[in-house]
Amino acid sequence: MAVNADYSPTALARAAGFADIGQIIAATARRLGSAIALDDGARALSYAAFDARANRLAQALLAHGLRPGERVAVLSENRFEYLELAVAAARAGVIVCALNWRFTPVELAHCVALTAPRVLLVSPRHAGLLGPITDCTIIMLGEAYEAWLAGPVEHAPPPCCGPEDGYIILYTSGTTGTSKAALISHRA
After folding, report:
1. pLDDT digits over 33-44, tens only?
2. Which helix H or strand E contains 148, and what residues bound it?
3. Tens digits of per-residue pLDDT, 111-127?
C-alpha cells in the first residue's frame, strides 16, 4: 500500500486481493523462471531474465530520482523494453505515460507538456517525432538504455503502490480539441 494508506476494514478488504503487474511477474518468475516469457523471433527472455531486467529498470528509475507518483514517458513500437517499463513502473510506483507514435511532433510535445515526465524512453524508430522536447531526460532504447540498466541491482524495490494509485496515462485522440490525459489505476 502507498504511504498514508487507509487501514480501514473496507480499504484493507479491497487491497487484500490486489496484486499489481510487478508482483504478478515476480510470482511467475519464481514459479516458471526458465520458461520463455517474451519472444519476438529475434531474441527470447525467460521469466527470470524478464523479472531481473524489470527490477534493474525500477532501480534505475529510482536512482535517477523518480519517486512514486512521478512520470516516465515512452514513445515506442511494441518491444521488450516497453513491457519492462510496464513492470518496472509498477514496482517503483511511477506512472507510465504511453505516448502514441501516430501523433504529430506538435501533438507529442503537447502530451509531454501535459504530463511532465521526468524521463522519456524512445525507440530509434520514433525518435524523430520528439522535436524540441528538452525538459526531461531522454533515453534512447538500444545501447543507451542497456547502459542505463547495467548499474542497478536486480532486486525489486519495496512495494509502494495501492490498487487505486496511478499506473498508466493514456491519451485521447483529441477529436474535440487537443489530446487529454486519462490516468488509469493499478487495479484497472
Report:
1. 899 999 999 999
2. helix 143-150
3. 999 999 999 999 999 99
